[in-house]
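Practice problem: predict the structure.
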Amino acid sequence: MGRAIKVGILFSTIGPYGAIGRDSRDGAEFAMDEITTKHPGAIEPVFIDPQGHMPGYLDGARSMLREYGCRHIVGTITSIARKEVIPLVEKHDGLLWYMCPYEGFEANENVIYTGACPNQHLLPLFDYMLPRYGRRPYLVGANYVWGWEMNRLARELIHQAGGEVLGERYLPLEETAVERIILDIEQRRPSFVLNNLIGPASYAFLQAFKVLGDRDPAFLPENCPVVSCDLSECELDEIGSGVATGHFSVAAYFDSLVSPENLAFKIDASKRFGSQRHLSNIFASAYTAVKLCGETIIAAGTDDPQTVRRHLSGVPLSTVFGEVQIDPDTNHMALPFHLGRINDDNGFSIVNSRPAITADPYLTRRRTKMPVRLRIVS
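Answer:
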Protein backbone atom coordinates (compact mmCIF):
# COMPACT_ATOMS: atom_id res chain seq x y z
CA MET A 1 0.00 0.00 0.00
CA GLY A 2 3.03 2.30 0.21
CA ARG A 3 2.55 5.11 2.71
CA ALA A 4 0.59 4.52 5.89
CA ILE A 5 -3.17 4.90 5.57
CA LYS A 6 -4.59 7.31 8.14
CA VAL A 7 -7.65 6.33 10.21
CA GLY A 8 -9.40 8.89 12.41
CA ILE A 9 -10.27 8.16 16.06
CA LEU A 10 -12.85 10.69 17.30
CA PHE A 11 -13.85 10.37 20.97
CA SER A 12 -14.40 12.89 23.77
CA THR A 13 -12.52 11.97 26.92
CA ILE A 14 -13.89 14.81 29.06
CA GLY A 15 -17.35 16.27 29.45
CA PRO A 16 -20.63 14.70 30.59
CA TYR A 17 -19.95 11.31 28.99
CA GLY A 18 -16.18 11.41 29.46
CA ALA A 19 -16.05 8.00 31.17
CA ILE A 20 -17.54 6.40 28.05
CA GLY A 21 -15.19 8.34 25.78
CA ARG A 22 -12.10 7.37 27.77
CA ASP A 23 -13.02 3.70 27.60
CA SER A 24 -13.71 4.05 23.87
CA ARG A 25 -10.33 5.70 23.32
CA ASP A 26 -8.57 2.99 25.35
CA GLY A 27 -10.25 0.25 23.31
CA ALA A 28 -9.38 2.00 20.06
CA GLU A 29 -5.74 2.53 21.05
CA PHE A 30 -5.44 -1.08 22.17
CA ALA A 31 -6.67 -2.31 18.79
CA MET A 32 -4.50 0.17 16.89
CA ASP A 33 -1.40 -0.94 18.79
CA GLU A 34 -2.12 -4.56 17.86
CA ILE A 35 -2.52 -3.62 14.20
CA THR A 36 0.62 -1.50 14.01
CA THR A 37 2.66 -4.16 15.81
CA LYS A 38 1.54 -6.82 13.37
CA HIS A 39 1.64 -4.55 10.29
CA PRO A 40 4.25 -1.83 10.90
CA GLY A 41 3.74 1.26 8.80
CA ALA A 42 0.43 0.12 7.29
CA ILE A 43 -2.04 2.16 9.40
CA GLU A 44 -1.52 5.48 11.16
CA PRO A 45 -4.10 6.67 13.70
CA VAL A 46 -5.21 10.29 13.87
CA PHE A 47 -6.56 11.04 17.36
CA ILE A 48 -8.74 14.10 17.91
CA ASP A 49 -10.61 14.80 21.15
CA PRO A 50 -13.73 17.02 20.72
CA GLN A 51 -13.85 17.44 24.54
CA GLY A 52 -17.60 16.93 24.64
CA HIS A 53 -18.42 19.95 22.46
CA MET A 54 -20.45 19.57 19.27
CA PRO A 55 -18.33 22.06 17.27
CA GLY A 56 -15.33 19.93 18.26
CA TYR A 57 -16.84 16.88 16.57
CA LEU A 58 -17.49 18.81 13.38
CA ASP A 59 -14.07 20.47 13.37
CA GLY A 60 -12.37 17.19 14.22
CA ALA A 61 -14.14 15.22 11.49
CA ARG A 62 -13.54 18.00 8.97
CA SER A 63 -9.83 18.07 9.82
CA MET A 64 -9.54 14.29 9.54
CA LEU A 65 -11.25 14.18 6.17
CA ARG A 66 -9.69 17.26 4.59
CA GLU A 67 -6.29 17.84 6.19
CA TYR A 68 -5.22 14.32 7.15
CA GLY A 69 -6.86 12.52 4.24
CA CYS A 70 -8.70 9.99 6.43
CA ARG A 71 -11.40 8.05 4.62
CA HIS A 72 -12.41 6.19 7.76
CA ILE A 73 -13.40 7.65 11.14
CA VAL A 74 -14.09 5.50 14.18
CA GLY A 75 -16.03 7.43 16.74
CA THR A 76 -18.66 9.75 18.12
CA ILE A 77 -20.62 8.70 21.20
CA THR A 78 -24.02 10.39 21.15
CA SER A 79 -26.55 10.22 18.35
CA ILE A 80 -26.44 14.01 18.08
CA ALA A 81 -22.74 13.86 17.26
CA ARG A 82 -23.23 10.97 14.84
CA LYS A 83 -25.98 12.77 12.95
CA GLU A 84 -23.91 15.96 12.78
CA VAL A 85 -20.81 14.19 11.45
CA ILE A 86 -22.53 11.96 8.88
CA PRO A 87 -23.10 14.72 6.25
CA LEU A 88 -19.37 15.51 6.27
CA VAL A 89 -18.52 11.83 5.88
CA GLU A 90 -21.02 11.53 3.02
CA LYS A 91 -19.60 14.60 1.30
CA HIS A 92 -16.11 13.09 1.32
CA ASP A 93 -17.37 9.57 0.51
CA GLY A 94 -15.84 8.19 3.69
CA LEU A 95 -16.98 5.64 6.27
CA LEU A 96 -17.97 6.41 9.85
CA TRP A 97 -17.61 3.42 12.18
CA TYR A 98 -20.20 3.94 14.92
CA MET A 99 -19.81 1.60 17.89
CA CYS A 100 -22.32 2.71 20.53
CA PRO A 101 -25.79 1.28 21.17
CA TYR A 102 -28.32 3.60 19.57
CA GLU A 103 -32.03 4.14 18.94
CA GLY A 104 -32.25 2.68 15.43
CA PHE A 105 -34.29 3.94 12.45
CA GLU A 106 -31.14 4.67 10.47
CA ALA A 107 -29.11 2.83 7.85
CA ASN A 108 -26.55 4.84 5.93
CA GLU A 109 -24.19 3.49 3.27
CA ASN A 110 -21.45 5.71 4.73
CA VAL A 111 -21.76 4.25 8.23
CA ILE A 112 -20.76 0.84 9.62
CA TYR A 113 -22.83 0.21 12.75
CA THR A 114 -21.01 -2.07 15.19
CA GLY A 115 -23.21 -0.95 18.10
CA ALA A 116 -26.61 -2.48 18.86
CA CYS A 117 -29.97 -1.15 17.66
CA PRO A 118 -33.34 -1.69 19.46
CA ASN A 119 -34.15 -5.20 18.22
CA GLN A 120 -30.77 -6.20 19.68
CA HIS A 121 -31.19 -4.48 23.06
CA LEU A 122 -34.60 -3.00 23.97
CA LEU A 123 -36.88 -5.68 22.52
CA PRO A 124 -35.19 -8.69 24.15
CA LEU A 125 -34.90 -6.65 27.37
CA PHE A 126 -38.67 -6.17 27.48
CA ASP A 127 -39.21 -9.83 26.59
CA TYR A 128 -37.38 -10.56 29.85
CA MET A 129 -38.69 -7.77 32.08
CA LEU A 130 -42.44 -7.55 31.37
CA PRO A 131 -43.43 -11.09 32.38
CA ARG A 132 -41.16 -11.04 35.45
CA TYR A 133 -41.64 -7.55 36.89
CA GLY A 134 -44.90 -6.29 35.44
CA ARG A 135 -46.23 -4.07 32.67
CA ARG A 136 -46.40 -0.72 34.45
CA PRO A 137 -42.93 0.82 34.09
CA TYR A 138 -41.73 4.41 34.45
CA LEU A 139 -39.55 5.90 31.68
CA VAL A 140 -36.70 8.37 32.13
CA GLY A 141 -34.44 9.56 29.34
CA ALA A 142 -31.84 12.01 28.10
CA ASN A 143 -33.44 15.02 26.46
CA TYR A 144 -32.32 14.29 22.91
CA VAL A 145 -32.90 11.72 20.19
CA TRP A 146 -31.61 8.69 22.17
CA GLY A 147 -33.99 9.26 25.08
CA TRP A 148 -36.94 10.34 22.91
CA GLU A 149 -36.81 7.43 20.49
CA MET A 150 -35.97 4.75 23.03
CA ASN A 151 -38.89 5.78 25.21
CA ARG A 152 -41.18 6.04 22.19
CA LEU A 153 -40.38 2.45 21.30
CA ALA A 154 -40.82 1.44 24.93
CA ARG A 155 -44.30 2.98 24.97
CA GLU A 156 -45.23 1.01 21.85
CA LEU A 157 -43.99 -2.25 23.35
CA ILE A 158 -45.76 -1.65 26.66
CA HIS A 159 -49.07 -0.76 25.00
CA GLN A 160 -48.84 -3.79 22.71
CA ALA A 161 -48.36 -5.95 25.83
CA GLY A 162 -51.49 -4.45 27.41
CA GLY A 163 -49.48 -2.43 29.91
CA GLU A 164 -49.37 1.18 31.01
CA VAL A 165 -46.60 3.78 31.19
CA LEU A 166 -46.90 5.33 34.64
CA GLY A 167 -44.68 8.31 33.90
CA GLU A 168 -42.12 9.72 31.47
CA ARG A 169 -39.52 12.38 32.25
CA TYR A 170 -36.42 13.81 30.52
CA LEU A 171 -33.23 15.50 31.69
CA PRO A 172 -30.25 17.13 29.95
CA LEU A 173 -27.02 15.12 30.08
CA GLU A 174 -25.44 17.27 32.80
CA GLU A 175 -28.56 17.80 34.94
CA THR A 176 -28.28 16.19 38.37
CA ALA A 177 -31.41 17.61 40.05
CA VAL A 178 -33.46 14.40 40.04
CA GLU A 179 -35.50 14.92 43.21
CA ARG A 180 -38.82 15.65 41.48
CA ILE A 181 -38.51 12.56 39.29
CA ILE A 182 -37.71 10.40 42.31
CA LEU A 183 -40.73 11.83 44.17
CA ASP A 184 -42.98 11.13 41.18
CA ILE A 185 -41.72 7.55 40.97
CA GLU A 186 -42.30 7.08 44.69
CA GLN A 187 -45.89 8.27 44.34
CA ARG A 188 -46.72 6.28 41.18
CA ARG A 189 -44.98 3.04 42.29
CA PRO A 190 -44.07 1.46 38.92
CA SER A 191 -43.12 -2.15 38.20
CA PHE A 192 -39.63 -1.10 37.09
CA VAL A 193 -37.83 1.93 35.67
CA LEU A 194 -36.37 2.11 32.15
CA ASN A 195 -33.35 4.40 32.39
CA ASN A 196 -32.26 6.08 29.15
CA LEU A 197 -30.41 8.89 30.90
CA ILE A 198 -26.74 9.47 30.07
CA GLY A 199 -23.73 10.58 32.07
CA PRO A 200 -24.13 12.68 35.25
CA ALA A 201 -27.94 12.61 35.00
CA SER A 202 -27.94 8.81 35.02
CA TYR A 203 -25.41 8.61 37.86
CA ALA A 204 -27.37 11.09 40.01
CA PHE A 205 -30.61 9.23 39.32
CA LEU A 206 -29.17 5.87 40.40
CA GLN A 207 -27.67 7.44 43.53
CA ALA A 208 -31.03 8.99 44.45
CA PHE A 209 -32.85 5.74 43.67
CA LYS A 210 -30.56 3.95 46.15
CA VAL A 211 -31.64 6.41 48.84
CA LEU A 212 -35.29 5.81 47.90
CA GLY A 213 -34.82 2.04 48.18
CA ASP A 214 -33.16 2.39 51.57
CA ARG A 215 -36.17 4.41 52.74
CA ASP A 216 -38.87 2.28 51.11
CA PRO A 217 -38.26 -1.45 50.46
CA ALA A 218 -40.73 -1.35 47.55
CA PHE A 219 -37.93 0.34 45.56
CA LEU A 220 -35.16 -2.09 46.34
CA PRO A 221 -33.69 -3.64 43.16
CA GLU A 222 -35.38 -6.98 43.71
CA ASN A 223 -38.78 -5.26 43.82
CA CYS A 224 -38.43 -2.32 41.40
CA PRO A 225 -35.21 -2.54 39.38
CA VAL A 226 -33.78 0.17 37.17
CA VAL A 227 -32.87 -1.21 33.72
CA SER A 228 -30.60 0.53 31.22
CA CYS A 229 -29.55 -0.08 27.62
CA ASP A 230 -26.38 1.99 27.82
CA LEU A 231 -24.81 1.61 31.27
CA SER A 232 -21.43 -0.14 31.27
CA GLU A 233 -18.61 -1.16 33.62
CA CYS A 234 -16.60 2.00 32.98
CA GLU A 235 -19.35 4.12 34.56
CA LEU A 236 -19.94 2.19 37.77
CA ASP A 237 -17.12 3.95 39.62
CA GLU A 238 -18.73 7.27 38.67
CA ILE A 239 -21.92 6.14 40.43
CA GLY A 240 -20.16 4.80 43.51
CA SER A 241 -19.30 1.34 44.78
CA GLY A 242 -22.40 -0.62 45.73
CA VAL A 243 -24.81 2.17 44.85
CA ALA A 244 -26.35 0.47 41.81
CA THR A 245 -25.97 -3.15 42.94
CA GLY A 246 -28.90 -5.27 41.83
CA HIS A 247 -29.98 -3.10 38.91
CA PHE A 248 -29.74 -4.20 35.26
CA SER A 249 -28.11 -3.17 32.01
CA VAL A 250 -28.07 -4.62 28.51
CA ALA A 251 -24.96 -5.06 26.36
CA ALA A 252 -23.49 -7.18 23.60
CA TYR A 253 -20.48 -7.73 25.88
CA PHE A 254 -19.74 -7.84 29.59
CA ASP A 255 -16.37 -8.38 31.24
CA SER A 256 -17.81 -11.47 32.96
CA LEU A 257 -18.73 -13.16 29.67
CA VAL A 258 -17.51 -16.77 29.62
CA SER A 259 -16.25 -17.61 26.13
CA PRO A 260 -12.95 -18.56 24.49
CA GLU A 261 -12.92 -15.22 22.65
CA ASN A 262 -13.33 -13.21 25.84
CA LEU A 263 -10.78 -15.27 27.75
CA ALA A 264 -8.14 -14.53 25.11
CA PHE A 265 -9.24 -10.87 24.92
CA LYS A 266 -8.95 -10.35 28.68
CA ILE A 267 -5.53 -12.02 28.85
CA ASP A 268 -4.20 -9.69 26.16
CA ALA A 269 -5.84 -6.61 27.69
CA SER A 270 -4.52 -7.40 31.17
CA LYS A 271 -0.96 -7.11 29.88
CA ARG A 272 -1.61 -3.46 29.14
CA PHE A 273 -4.30 -2.40 31.62
CA GLY A 274 -3.79 -4.80 34.51
CA SER A 275 -5.87 -7.76 35.58
CA GLN A 276 -8.10 -5.68 37.89
CA ARG A 277 -9.66 -3.60 35.14
CA HIS A 278 -13.21 -4.46 34.16
CA LEU A 279 -13.52 -4.24 30.38
CA SER A 280 -16.78 -2.72 29.16
CA ASN A 281 -19.03 -3.12 26.15
CA ILE A 282 -17.85 0.33 25.05
CA PHE A 283 -14.20 -0.72 25.26
CA ALA A 284 -14.89 -3.97 23.37
CA SER A 285 -16.97 -2.20 20.70
CA ALA A 286 -14.33 0.47 20.01
CA TYR A 287 -11.65 -2.21 19.90
CA THR A 288 -13.72 -4.29 17.45
CA ALA A 289 -14.51 -1.33 15.18
CA VAL A 290 -10.85 -0.32 14.90
CA LYS A 291 -9.68 -3.93 14.39
CA LEU A 292 -12.23 -4.56 11.63
CA CYS A 293 -11.48 -1.22 9.98
CA GLY A 294 -7.70 -1.56 10.03
CA GLU A 295 -7.47 -5.24 9.20
CA THR A 296 -9.99 -4.97 6.36
CA ILE A 297 -8.08 -2.06 4.83
CA ILE A 298 -4.86 -4.09 5.00
CA ALA A 299 -6.51 -7.22 3.56
CA ALA A 300 -8.15 -5.22 0.75
CA GLY A 301 -4.95 -3.31 -0.02
CA THR A 302 -6.90 -0.04 -0.10
CA ASP A 303 -8.95 2.26 2.10
CA ASP A 304 -11.54 2.80 -0.64
CA PRO A 305 -14.84 2.72 1.33
CA GLN A 306 -16.78 0.71 -1.25
CA THR A 307 -14.05 -1.93 -1.42
CA VAL A 308 -13.87 -2.12 2.37
CA ARG A 309 -17.65 -2.55 2.60
CA ARG A 310 -17.56 -5.36 0.03
CA HIS A 311 -14.84 -7.18 1.98
CA LEU A 312 -16.84 -6.88 5.21
CA SER A 313 -20.42 -7.51 4.16
CA GLY A 314 -22.01 -10.88 4.75
CA VAL A 315 -18.84 -12.78 5.66
CA PRO A 316 -18.16 -14.44 9.06
CA LEU A 317 -16.11 -12.17 11.32
CA SER A 318 -14.27 -13.45 14.39
CA THR A 319 -14.65 -10.91 17.19
CA VAL A 320 -14.74 -10.73 20.97
CA PHE A 321 -18.54 -10.95 20.60
CA GLY A 322 -18.12 -14.32 18.89
CA GLU A 323 -18.55 -14.98 15.19
CA VAL A 324 -20.75 -12.27 13.67
CA GLN A 325 -21.59 -10.75 10.28
CA ILE A 326 -22.32 -7.29 8.93
CA ASP A 327 -25.56 -7.16 6.97
CA PRO A 328 -24.85 -5.79 3.44
CA ASP A 329 -28.36 -4.27 3.31
CA THR A 330 -28.12 -2.22 6.50
CA ASN A 331 -24.37 -2.04 7.33
CA HIS A 332 -25.28 -3.21 10.86
CA MET A 333 -23.43 -5.92 12.76
CA ALA A 334 -25.29 -8.93 14.16
CA LEU A 335 -24.73 -8.89 17.92
CA PRO A 336 -25.53 -11.10 20.90
CA PHE A 337 -27.82 -9.94 23.70
CA HIS A 338 -26.74 -10.13 27.33
CA LEU A 339 -28.62 -8.87 30.36
CA GLY A 340 -26.31 -8.11 33.26
CA ARG A 341 -27.11 -7.44 36.90
CA ILE A 342 -24.73 -5.13 38.75
CA ASN A 343 -22.88 -7.02 41.47
CA ASP A 344 -20.96 -6.03 44.59
CA ASP A 345 -17.66 -6.10 42.68
CA ASN A 346 -18.78 -3.18 40.48
CA GLY A 347 -19.22 -5.50 37.54
CA PHE A 348 -22.11 -7.36 35.93
CA SER A 349 -23.36 -10.89 36.48
CA ILE A 350 -25.02 -12.14 33.29
CA VAL A 351 -28.56 -13.41 33.96
CA ASN A 352 -29.91 -13.83 30.43
CA SER A 353 -28.36 -14.16 26.95
CA ARG A 354 -29.26 -14.70 23.32
CA PRO A 355 -26.92 -15.59 20.44
CA ALA A 356 -26.12 -13.03 17.76
CA ILE A 357 -29.27 -11.23 16.57
CA THR A 358 -29.39 -9.87 13.03
CA ALA A 359 -29.94 -6.12 13.19
CA ASP A 360 -33.35 -4.82 12.13
CA PRO A 361 -32.92 -1.04 12.51
CA TYR A 362 -36.37 -0.16 11.14
CA LEU A 363 -38.13 -3.06 12.92
CA THR A 364 -39.48 -4.27 9.59
CA ARG A 365 -39.46 -7.88 10.73
CA ARG A 366 -41.90 -7.34 13.59
CA ARG A 367 -45.32 -8.89 12.96
CA THR A 368 -47.05 -5.81 14.32
CA LYS A 369 -45.71 -2.81 12.51
CA MET A 370 -44.61 -0.05 14.84
CA PRO A 371 -45.13 3.51 13.59
CA VAL A 372 -42.07 5.55 12.65
CA ARG A 373 -41.94 9.20 13.65
CA LEU A 374 -39.01 11.42 12.84
CA ARG A 375 -37.77 14.06 15.25
CA ILE A 376 -35.53 16.92 14.24
CA VAL A 377 -32.69 17.75 16.62
CA SER A 378 -32.16 21.47 16.82
